[in-house]
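Possible regression after last week's pipeline update?

I re-ran a chain I had predicted before the update to compare outputs. Posting the input and the new output here so someone can diff against the archived version. Not blocking, just want to make sure nothing changed silently.
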Amino acid sequence: EVLHRDLEKARSYVLSLLPAPIATSTPQTEWFIVPSARVGGDAFGYGELDDAKFVSFLFDVSGHGIGAAMLSVSILNVLRQRALPGCDFKSPTDVLGRLNDMFQMDNHNGMFFTIWYGVFDKHHQRLTYASAGHHPAYLVSADRTQITPLKTEGPLIGVLEEFTVKEGTAEIPPNASLHLFSDGVFEVDDVKGQQLGLKSLLPLLQQPAVEGRSEPQRIYQNVREFARSGPLDDDFSYLVVKC
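New output (post-update):
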């Protein structure tokens, strides 16, 4: 019982650090997170860097349990408080490189993490992004007919001391949506043990909106209908940024 309460406290603390959805300004954001039965290491964030730049990110710490949650909180607070000395937070490559320096796995009980980090220029409708070991984020057009993967090559954060990551850019059409999510969204098994997988998840992003549900809630309902009964094996973490 004591362990269960401690896990609940850890889970609740991580959730308390996530930003509130944005509904009254641009970009707008909506998210949905359902922790698994175990404490995980998923977290995300977003916010204004200045009048023109808006940052969004999502990361996933390896493993489960209190250790993964504690490291997740450390990373999230560093990014929320912009506590990377000398870092240009408008530069995804600079941010990921400095995170790699700060969170070497040898100093954090062998744990590492994946991350996707993007900076949206509202004046020029342009997104600059980089990812390290993470699957793509996806840009979905306003009419949902086009879906574009956004990913760059980069190693897991904390694994290698010598760290190089590429940076990508994308022009953002009006009213497009950026979808960021953890692997717990698609690494889901059905009753026969067959996994949903990323390829089968993507068509769900193009399905029509459902009245009364946010986009992340709509996706969760579809995933939940595919999955076997009981809690999901990993955290379901899903963030949508409407540009």
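Follow-up from reviewer: compared with the archived run. The mean pLDDT is 93. Marking as no regression found.
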